[in-house]
Structure formats: C-alpha cells, structure tokens
Write a structure and sequence with these properties.
mainly alpha; disordered C terminus; 76% helix
C-alpha cells in the first residue's frame, strides 16, 4: 500500500511541477500586455483570454498536487487536536461520503460539457480574437481524473494510519510558512544559550 501511495505521489508531483510553468507564461503574457497597452497604446486582443485560460488550467490541474501536500482548506482548529487514528477515520469517512461522489460528478458533468464544446469547436464569446476554448473546458475532466487518482492515495494513507497509528511520510518539496516558523522556533528553544547556561549552572551546583 505504501508503494501505491509513493507511485501516485510521484506522478502527481511531476504533473504539478510541469503545469507550474504556466505561471511564467502568464506573467510574461500579462507583462507584455501592460507594456503594449500603456507604453505603445496598442492593447492586445488575446491577453484576457490567455490569463483566465492559463490560470484556470493551473487551478484545476494543480488540485491533485495540492491534495497530495495536504494543503487544501480544513478545519484545523479541531483536526489538529485529534489523535492520528481519529484524524484518519474522519478523513476516510469524508472521502467516501463527499470527495469521491463530488469528483465523479465533476468528471461526468465536465465530460459532457467538454464534449459539446468540442462538437461545436467553441470559441470565447468575450474575446474579440475568437480564442478557442474547447480545449480549456477539457481541463475540467483532466483535473477531476487527477483528483480521483490522488484520492486513492489519500484513502491508502488513511488506512495505513488506522492500522499503525501514524501517518505515512509525505513528500516534502514545499513547506508551509507556518510550519517553517514552528520548526525554527523549536530549534531556537533547543539552542537557546540562556537555557544552556542555566543547565550548566545547575550541573555546577
């Protein structure tokens, strides 16, 4: 089961990092639009479409990567007080009752939505350039499928935790600022020279 978790996590990490490059494309595109609009008085006809297509794609496809890093919104003020086994049991129940039905609904509804868009080779009604958006709507399905795959890994994590009482280790390529500050404060307390001095003094006495 741990092998399944690691394999899915590696795949999700590769997808997340690959699509993260869309941020640079969006930044360069919007930067060009600002320069063209305000310096040369020649706004582009495609910048708006590019921004929402790239951002929307990143948002949908990056959801599985975010889930693998345990970074989605949660009621942590309650969750963090529970023991790992309690956390795992609650998470497993919520995955079965809400996560998988919701994501399956997204995949099937998004599939028919995207299929109609491909049928008509749909273009954006808000774009003076007539930017095609049928490929963009396909990202609904892609994002949903990726979430389903990562959901399997999360369920396996819950099962492992229920059996062992500990969460299996996660891939740590990114750390939340809050966690970094907590780790630093813990290290500072451990290495506090005043504490060391008091300890030495106590030993001498």
């Amino acid at each position: 089961m741990l092998q399944v978790i690691h394999t899915i996590d590696r795949f999700t990490t590769w997808v997340g990092r690959s699509f993260a490059w869309l941020i640079l494309l969006m930044a360069f595109g919007m930067g060009y639009e600002v320069l063209s609009r305000y310096l040369f008085g020649a706004p582009t006809a495609w910048a708006y479409d590019m921004s929402y297509i790239l951002y929307g794609t990143l948002f949908m496809v990056g959801g599985a990567y975010t889930l693998s890093r345990n970074a989605h919104v949660r009621g942590d003020f309650l969750y963090r007080l529970w023991k790992p086994r309690t956390q795992a049991r609650v998470e497993l129940t919520l995955y079965i009752l809400f996560f998988f039905p919701g994501i399956l609904a997204l995949v099937f509804a998004g599939g028919s939505y995207a299929a109609r868009s491909w049928q008509y080779m749909e273009t954006s009604v808000f774009s003076p350039a007539g930017i095609p958006i049928f490929h963009f709507k396909t990202m609904l399905v892609v994002g949903g499928v990726l979430m389903l795959i990562q959901g399997v890994a999360q369920v396996c994590r819950c099962i492992v935790c229920i059996r062992t009482g500990e969460w299996p280790p996660e891939v740590r390529d990114v750390t939340e600022l809050e966690d970094q500050l907590l780790e630093q404060s813990g290290q500072n307390e451990t290495n506090n020279p005043l504490d060391n001095a008091s300890t030495v003094g106590g030993n001498e006495r």
